[in-house]
Amino acid sequence: MLGQLGVRVIVADLDPQANLTSLFLTEDRLDELFATTPRPTLQGAVSPQFRGVGDVRPPVIEPIADCIGLLPGDLELSRFEDDLSYAWPKCQDGDERSFRVMSAFARAIEMAGDQFQADIALVDVGPNLGPLNRSALLACDFVVVPLGADLLSLQGLRNMGPTVRGWRDAWQDRRAKNPDASITLPEGGMQPLGYIVMRHAITAGRPARAYSRWIARMPAQYREYVLNAPDGGLEEVSNDPNCLAQLKDYRSLMPMAQEVRKPMFLLRPADGAFGGHQEAVRLCYGDFKALTLQIMERCRSHTLTVTPETC
User: Fold this and answer.
1) Spatial separation of the C-alpha atoms in residues 146 and 150, rounded to whole Å
2) Residues near 260 by Cβ (< 8 Å), separated by ≥ 6?
3) Is 128 inside a domain boundary?
4) Distance CA 230, CA 244 (A)
5) Which one of 215, 232, 253, 276 has the fewest CB atoms closer than 10 angstroms to its CB?
6) Which domain holds residue 98?
7) Contact present, 62 and 9 (Cβ < 8 Å)
């Protein structure tokens, strides 16, 4: 949707499962990437830094559309977990290599952004709180949290909020101990922009009862555990300023989109979206456009400059 709005965007897949990459690229193209040495993926860009044989290489950008460039993910990224776990406490000692390791992903994304002349970078991470995600999130100014309408998502929120706040504070302490001013370190802002309610069923214009009980708890849980703020009262999610969007389950649109490697909101009759599906596609487009504009507006209010002519 950012591309639809004329925003130039770099998409960085930092989930070792590389699901985002597999949605963009065919299996044949993935096979080519993984068979090439060095790999034209994020893993290949940062590998010299982790192996101690050089600095971060300029990453290879996979062109997806005029406004969209992909930094492909890689299963091999999980191999860096131990190095990142070791480097984190060593930064407290002012260890130069540890700062280079911790900032490797951020520097690779920044290089790609400069090369692609991107307005914004989207960083996709896996659903965990491990060392790889810590390093990935250090590269981010803002964090958007998708929440499923279930108990496990709410429990994850309780874990994620305090952990990310702790990482943010600890990184600011470590940055002050960087021994080499020539290393471009990320700010590590990780400011929460809000949450998105994901894939709930709608009945008569309202979430089905099975989902409503979990959705009703999201405003208070997000304020308490992510914002570290007192409960503001019995606010409904529809009135919660921290809720960026409620995205319903579009059911059959998703498998169609996966098959043709297109966003749900750009499906056409030739893709199988005919009849009543076209109305769902139209509504989906409106939902994602509203969400994207909301995120961009909140970025602007936090001083990030994103100014496409179409907005």
Assistant:
1) 12
2) 267, 271, 272
3) yes
4) 20
5) 276
6) 1-140
7) no
